[in-house]
Specification:
mainly alpha; about 0% strand
Length: about 250
């Protein structure tokens, strides 16, 4: 016997777990291709020195892999939750995949800059990666390219969740699921603000401090913690409210 008045149906029902759609399969192929683009330029080491150089490159690849895996996981979760495959979902997914492919090279380049120059593994790489005398403009341009990709990805996810919320009746979302979907959309909107802040700081800060703008991306962690706390508290209150009504 249940002693609590908390509703039993508080977990998000997975409407797309029955089968993998063609749209998901295509998306998986695109993400796999994006990962291939990250390593396609690597050659088989011909000496131990080349091997060590290649292994240093693996640090940057690991970061890129984690980012792309996170994006794939978010996309996968959306399809498991809602199971949508209509025209609007296809269009939004197409936009997302296009941005992911366009985002790969800025992601790889920035990762190499952070690993080789920022972490000091190869400080001479700065002279090879940026044109002498144009470093400031090119670093700011890198912030624009990288931040623009992250901004576009977050905005697409925002519209995907807002669209799912607009299909609430057809998807038969209960009160908790509708609450979750609204918050998932809002979360992506907040995430879209982080690259905007970082890019703006890259143009506002003095030339010698431009690199510090990159620390703005730490806001993802801070915002995630604060957002999760507010969301969790609100969700518990919502569940308790519904439990009281049912009781």
């Amino acid at each position: 016997m249940r002693k609590s008045r908390v509703p039993a149906d508080t977990d998000f029902r997975l409407r797309g777990k029955q089968h993998v759609t063609r749209l998901e399969s295509f998306s998986d192929c695109v993400f796999a291709f994006a990962l291939t683009l990250l390593v396609v330029s690597l050659e088989v080491p011909k000496s131990f020195t080349d091997l060590l150089s290649a292994m240093r490159g693996m640090v940057a690849f690991a970061f890129c892999f984690a980012v792309l895996f996170g994006l794939w996981s978010r996309h996968h979760t959306f399809f498991r939750r809602f199971g949508l495959e209509d025209g609007a979902t296809k269009a939004l997914t197409a936009c997302l995949l296009f941005v992911v492919l366009a985002y790969v090279y800025p992601l790889k380049f920035l990762s190499l800059v952070v690993v080789n120059v920022g972490l000091g593994l190869d400080r001479s790489a700065s002279g090879r990666m940026f044109t002498r005398g144009q470093e400031l403009e090119q670093v700011r341009g890198l912030f624009v390219l990288y931040g623009g990709g992250l901004f576009a990805i977050s905005i697409v996810f925002f519209f995907m969740y807002r669209y799912a919320l607009s299909r609430r009746s057809e998807l038969e979302l209960n009160e908790i699921e509708a609450y979750d979907t609204r918050w998932f959309a809002t979360e992506n909107l907040f995430q879209a603000a982080v690259p905007v802040i970082a890019t703006a700081l890259a143009f506002i800060l003095p030339p010698q401090m431009v690199g510090m703008a990159g620390f703005s991306y730490c806001l993802y962690g801070l915002a995630g913690f604060m957002f999760g706390s507010i969301y969790g508290k609100g969700r518990r209150m919502k569940v308790a409210e519904l439990g009281t009504e049912k009781g």
